[in-house]
Design goal:
Shape of chain A: extended
Number of strands of chain B: 6
Strand content of chain A: under 5%
Helix content of chain A: over 70%
Radius of gyration of chain B: 23 Å
Oligomer: heterodimer
Order of helices and strands of chain A: HHHEHHHHEHHHH
Number of helices of chain A: 11
Structural class of chain B: alpha/beta
Largest interface: A-B, 68 and 72 residues
Structural class of chain A: mainly alpha
Strand order of the largest sheet of chain A: 1-2
Order of helices and strands of chain B: HHHEHEHEHHEHEHEHHHH
Distance between the termini of chain B: 25 Å
Helix content of chain B: 55-70%
Largest sheet of chain A: 2 strands, antiparallel
Number of strands of chain A: 2
């Protein structure tokens, strides 16, 4: 029963969704809309499963002192600290009150004329809850020229960035960007040691690689005016031919796997060892 | 140094020396403020021309920020250039993301450009945020975007958002641009382009660009920006347009010195990044040539013995 029901469901839904694509009828459309709603709901549960799986795996590593278990502590700590800050401190930027010393000093630092400063400090920000309301108030208080000149400065001065956003801007972005940037160093070292013209196939790959690298930078065209066109030709004709072959192979593989799943031949998604 | 010593030195070169040369090739062009010319390719112009054709039609551009901070240096400048183009030409623009970490990046990109142009949130543009799963989101927009995104990123109900008033599904969207460091643009081709006939364009990392050329040739992508070079080309096109319309000088003249410096810097992000990248490419080519010289002079002979 545990295996039969999912198999029947998969077969029925697979055949129905396949047929639906070719039936231009309101009933077919209504069925399609309903399925999209179901998929959205099921998708949310996948997030819950993913989160619980992450916690279980890393908790297990810490408990058994697996090699590198310290990284699991960092992962879980990052997960919970970020979630707690988001839950308790909020994810939205906060608008500073008109009398807030930070707001006034931010405006002073921006070097605004006295007349504009007077208008801005007169705005009652006590009741402003969102950045949209703040924008509306600032727009209403200034004339057209002042809006063009100072609106962005004023909004930035009156907004206190949330801690949640700071985590994203000052921790996550630099960390991930750094990891990706390291590729440049590894690629150079690997290219120096491994990119050798050992035979004619390797020589062809090397030549194409060097030409494309040259064609993608302004120096290429400075050396020879046709370099970027040659690069385009390499990318559009030989590369595309090879990639299309791979894509067709992948496409046929996807069709075959889908049919095997719908027909119950491929049952890996049911879990278990058999 | 004799030839034999040179070959021996090159063969045993420490990888840290290679790293140092690469580091200098990235830093020096930035410090010396090297400025190299930008040539626009037809793939990038395809996206630009498509957005130009939407001016005054009321059709929107849907921008999907399908990337995370790791690929931000390449993708954020191109996303901002497209947002800048749409806001400049008053083409309604809707931002979404299929990556949870894309939420912050998409929101930042749209808010920053909107500030420069004083464009109004929810009137000229809107960022709807993150929704999952990908396929359901893409197909769902084909039926009703307001059902897929009941609220925008700030929690305002979609039905109350002015820019979405006349937009229900892909019929009112003139172009979808997916910025991604993965294969998500192919999902947009499969589920939005094929099923709903909406034009699709993409902005991808340089390393993954070759995966997408087959779809460019078949016009399933009407245009593509590859890596920081693609971003630099689009920046150049938008700057030319802004200057031609006279809006750039007008806007810059009305700004404070600090704001002007900030926005001038922001508008050149990709073009500035092209300079260290160009020198880095040359350095990699130089190392490949040196590596092969060593190989032919020493290693190949040893292999024969």
């Amino acid at each position: 029963m545990k295996r039969t029901v999912p198999l029947v469901l998969t077969f029925t839904m697979g055949v129905l969704m396949f047929a639906q694509y070719f039936i231009p009828h309101p009933l077919s459309q209504a069925f399609y809309d309903l399925m999209l709603e179901w998929a959205r709901i099921i998708g949310i549960f996948a997030l819950v499963i993913g989160l619980s799986s992450l916690i279980r795996v890393h908790y297990g590593k810490i408990k058994r002192k697996f090699p590198g278990w310290g990284y699991s502590i960092v992962t879980l700590a990052a997960l919970f600290i970020t979630a707690l800050i988001g839950l308790f401190s909020g994810t939205e930027d906060r608008v500073l009150h008109g009398s807030n010393p930070d707001y006034v000093s931010n405006l002073q630092k921006a070097g605004l004329p006295e007349e504009t400063m007077a208008k801005l400090t007169a705005i009652d920000l006590q009741t402003v809850g969102s950045s949209q309301e703040l924008e509306e108030k600032v727009t209403a208080s200034l004339n057209a020229l002042e809006i063009q000149k100072y609106k962005s400065t004023v909004i930035a001065s009156a907004t206190k960035v949330s801690h949640f956003k700071k985590i994203f801007d000052y921790i996550l972005i630099p960390l991930q960007a750094t990891m990706f940037s390291l590729l440049a160093f590894y690629i150079t070292s690997a290219a120096y040691r491994a990119f050798r013209a050992r035979n004619w196939q390797a020589s062809l790959l090397l030549l194409a690689g060097v030409l494309v690298m040259l064609g993608r930078i302004p120096f290429g065209d400075m050396m020879w005016s046709g370099m970027s066109e040659l690069t385009r030709w390499i990318m559009l004709i030989p590369t595309t031919a090879a990639m299309r072959g791979i894509a067709l192979g992948v496409g046929l593989g996807v069709i075959a796997t889908s049919l095997k799943i719908i027909l119950g031949i491929e049952r890996g998604y049911l879990g278990g060892s058999r | 140094m004799s030839a034999a010593k040179f070959v021996s030195f090159m063969r045993d070169i420490d990888r840290r020396v290679i790293y140092l040369v690469m580091l200098l090739s990235v830093i020096l062009p930035l410090v010396l403020k090297l400025r190299l010319p930008t040539t626009v390719t037809p793939e990038v112009r395809g996206i630009y021309d498509k957005i130009e054709s939407l001016v005054g039609t009321g059709k929107a551009v849907l921008v999907s920020f399908d990337y995370d901070p790791s690929t931000q240096p390449e993708l954020q400048p191109m996303a901002k250039a497209v947002v800048r183009h749409c806001i400049l030409r008053k083409v309604p623009i809707i931002g979404i993301t299929n990556f949870i970490t894309g939420s912050g990046l998409g929101s930042n990109a749209m808010n920053e450009v909107a500030l420069e142009y004083q464009a109004e949130n929810r009137k000229d543009w809107v960022f709807l945020g993150f929704q999952t799963p990908v396929v359901v989101v893409i197909l769902g927009i084909g039926e009703n975007i307001k059902e897929v995104f009941p609220t925008d990123y700030d929690g305002i109900r979609s039905t109350d958002i002015e820019v979405l008033k006349n937009i229900t599904n892909y019929n009112e969207i003139g172009l979808v641009v997916s910025f991604a460091g993965n294969t998500l643009p192919l999902s947009w081709v499969t589920y939005a382009g094929t099923r709903y006939n909406v034009p699709i364009a993409t902005g991808v990392t340089a390393v993954s660009a070759s995966d997408f050329y087959p779809y460019l040739q078949t016009k399933q992508f009407i245009g593509m920006m590859g890596g920081i070079k693609g971003a630099a080309e689009y920046e150049e096109l938008v700057d030319e347009l802004d200057t031609r319309l006279g809006t750039l000088d007008q806007r810059m003249a009305a700004m404070t010195d600090a704001d002007r410096a900030h926005w001038e810097n922001d508008r050149f992000t990709a073009r500035r990044a092209m300079n260290p990248q160009s020198v880095a490419h040359l350095v990699i080519i130089m190392f490949i040539i040196l590596g092969n010289i060593t190989y032919f002079l020493f290693e190949r002979k040893s292999a024969r013995i």
